[in-house]
Write a structure and sequence with these properties.
- This protein is an all-beta fold.
- The protein has a single domain (12-484), classed as Methylamine Dehydrogenase, Chain H, CATH 2.130.10.
- The chain is built from two helices and 31 strands.
- It has helices at residues 85-93, 242-246; strands at 22-23, 27-30, 38-46, 62-71, 74-81, 126-130, 133-137, 144-146, 153-156, 173-174, 181-186, 195-201, 207-214, 225-226, 230-236, 238-239, 253-254, 260-266, 275-279, 289-293, 296-301, 330-335, 344-347, 370-375, 398-403, 409-413, 418-427, 436-444, 449-456, 466-469, 477-484.
- The protein has a five-stranded antiparallel β-sheet, with no helix packed on it.
- Strand 8 and strand 9 (153-156) form a beta hairpin.
- The two termini are 39 Å apart.
- The mean pLDDT is 97.
- The structure holds 4-hydroxy-3-methoxybenzaldehyde and fe (iii) ion.
- Fe (iii) ion binds at residues 125, 170-171, 222-223, 286, 479.
């Protein structure tokens, strides 16, 4: 029942591991900083059973969470499946029951779930920590609350019944000044609906505001940004329809004729105060940060020129174009005084980057100086021959810090058989932006194992401080987050 040999990632580095692990006092090369007290949580997908169809998207794999708990210069590791409704159902049936990515019409006939997206979510996208709780998120369902010590799944969370959207997108933003979490759900009133609900949740975790808006067309609003005054809603290109779901396709296809949009909503405003700006074909997945300057909103984001995901193919039948799936560090200016509905865009650095960016969480919503992500430094070696099966043609071999003030990049090369996943920022000290650590997982294709890199965020050019060695491969991460010991009830 669990034959993975016919799936794209059935063998080699990305083959599913399908086991949970606990390692006390992991192997460390170098010396972990003794002031690291907290945990790095990472969420991604791992197929428990192979997908029913070869056309399914890898983003439909079952949610899987890991933690690296740092304390007193030591680190413990844990790994767990997220026990979603659907995970439990397939485990009971001892086979895959659920069909294509966000298409309930492709489920096994034995699935009798009502058409509520929450029963289908795999919760495989991002961890978030707010008001003393840890959650795992995916944009098609509600958050699942996770025990930060054991990683056991505690069930879905609807904010004491005050979260009315059926969905909760994976990239809420936490305002470092107020402790509020701004979050949204799209397709909020059901599959294919154009309703978007936007919430402000106060620092104690209670819903304080709700704004209900309509989207110009139904599309994934994957990420969002906040400033001290505005909520920013970028989306574009991906489309869905009743017809494509009836045909059994994955939820999204790419429509190159569709404009991109960026919504700007005042944080204290209502639906009538929302302004949509319109732009060219763009795949708007993740943001770095945004701030408001007078009557302008400045957004830094590594958007792609066009469709990044080959498994959400163009709806016109044309082949996916890798040459346009390139992300750059973009500065987007939205002028609220302007009569036009366009925006200004500037590419700040000529080299392509990975669209998984971070800033120091203490400057979210404020003017920031540093942007962090990874990229493929072509001047560095890649030993493909020493890398095992499953190693890609090109790797993301370096972390980078981009200095907005000077345009300078400082980078850290992870190694000749290494591919970096998303990094996270660990704040340290009294609040000065950029003071802290960078942590993130690297795939080591030669050793067929995962390694966690710990680096000084102000000294990337000097190389890492320490590397945590796991004796096995980790699933591929989508997103991760650092939680300080004070933020969660750690044992
Ligand atoms: C993304 C990830 C998703 C998804 C939609 O990175 C978009 C973008 C891991 O799931 O469902
Ligand atoms: Fe994301």
């Amino acid at each position: 029942m669990a034959d993975f040999s016919k799936t794209a990632t059935g063998r080699g580095y990305n083959a599913p591991m399908r086991f949970e692990a606990d390692i006390d006092d992991c192997e460390v090369v170098g010396k972990l900083p003794s002031d690291l007290d907290g945990a790095f949580f990472r969420v991604g997908g791992e197929w428990y059973y192979p997908p029913l169809s070869p056309d399914d998207a890898p983003l439909n794999s079952d949610g899987f969470i890991s933690s690296f708990r740092f304390k007193s210069g030591k680190v413990d590791f844990h790994n767990r499946w997220i026990h979603t409704h659907r995970f439990e159902e397939q485990r009971k049936a001892r086979r895959q029951l659920y069909g294509n990515y966000r298409n309930p019409y492709t489920d096994d006939p034995s699935v009798r779930d009502p058409l509520h997206p929450n029963l289908r979510t795999v919760s495989n996208t991002a961890p978030v920590v707010h008001a003393g709780k840890l959650f795992s998120l995916k944009e098609d369902g509600l958050p699942y609350q996770i025990d930060p010590n054991t990683l056991a799944t505690k069930g879905t969370w609807d904010f004491q019944g005050k979260w009315k959207s059926q969905t909760f997108a994976a990239h809420p933003k936490i305002d470092p000044l107020t402790g509020e979490m701004i979050a949204l759900g799209y397709e909020a009133t059901g599959l294919l609906s154009d309703d978007v609900f936007i919430y402000t949740i106060d620092k104690s975790g209670s819903v304080k505001r709700e704004v209900r808006i309509k989207q110009p067309y139904v599309s994934l609003i994957h990420d969002m940004a906040i400033t001290h005054k505005h909520i920013i809603l970028p989306f574009g290109g991906y489309v869905t329809s009743k017809e494509r779901l009836a045909e059994g396709k994955v939820h999204w296809g790419w429509d190159q004729t569709k404009p991109s949009y960026i919504g700007v909503l005042p944080r204290d405003g209502d639906a009538k105060d929302l302004r949509w700006f319109k732009g060219p074909e763009r795949c708007m997945m993740h943001v770095f940060n945004a701030h408001t300057e007078g009557n302008k909103v400045i957004l830094y984001a590594p958007f792609y020129d066009s469709n990044f995901f080959p498994f959400f193919p163009p709806i016109d039948g044309s082949p996916w174009n890798p040459a346009k799936a390139r992300a750059f560090i973009r500065k987007i200016t939205l002028d609220l005084d302007s009569k036009s509905d366009g925006w200004q865009e500037e590419i700040l650095w000529p080299t392509q980057v990975v669209d998984l960016g971070k800033v120091d969480p203490r400057v979210v919503s404020l003017q920031s100086r540093y942007l962090y992500t990874s990229y493929s430094d072509a001047s560095k070696p890649y030993d493909r021959d020493a890398s095992g099966p499953g190693a890609p043609a090109r790797t993301n071999n370096s972390y980078m810090r981009f200095d907005i003030a000077t345009g300078k990049v400082e980078s850290l090369f992870a190694g000749p058989t290494h591919n970096l996943q998303e990094l996270s920022f660990v704040p340290r000290g009294r609040g000065e932006e950029g003071v802290g650590y960078i942590v993130g997982v690297a795939a080591n294709y030669a050793e067929m194992r995962s390694e966690l890199i710990v680096a000084d965020a102000q000294r990337l050019g000097e190389g890492e401080i320490a590397r945590v060695i796991l004796p096995f491969r980790l699933n591929s991460q989508v997103h991760g987050v650092w939680a300080d010991a004070k933020e969660l009830p750690f044992k």
